[in-house]
Write a structure and sequence with these properties.
alpha+beta; two-stranded antiparallel ribbon
């Protein structure tokens, strides 16, 4: 296995592109792209994802757009608030983004 990912269902009915991971020695070779394309071909929008803020340009290639807290579902609003709190407590965590594919 070179990489993995999933569509994670939430109790509120939203679904999240999640757990995208690639073995370090295979990064930069299109493995994540192949995993994401495979998942998107099998799951209809809307889909959400959370990522480190610096990864937004990568996910924009798949038509995901960054959303604000006011545009988020209750689950993702809670997640955004928690991420803000944690980033204040641990500076090295960095900012998190929530994105949606419609």
């Amino acid at each position: 296995m070179l990489g993995c990912g999933q569509i994670k269902p939430h109790a509120d009915g939203t679904r999240e592109l999640a757990s995208i991971a690639v073995w370090p020695r295979f990064q930069g070779q299109g493995v994540a792209r192949a995993v994401i394309e495979h998942l998107l071909a099998r799951h209809q929008p809307p889909l959400y994802l959370t990522c480190r803020a610096e990864l937004q340009p990568f996910y924009q290639k798949f038509r995901f757009v960054t959303i604000s807290e006011s545009q988020a579902t209750p689950y993702f609003r809670r997640l955004m608030r928690l991420a803000r709190l944690l980033s204040r407590l641990a500076q090295r965590l960095g900012a998190m983004a929530v994105m949606r594919l419609d």
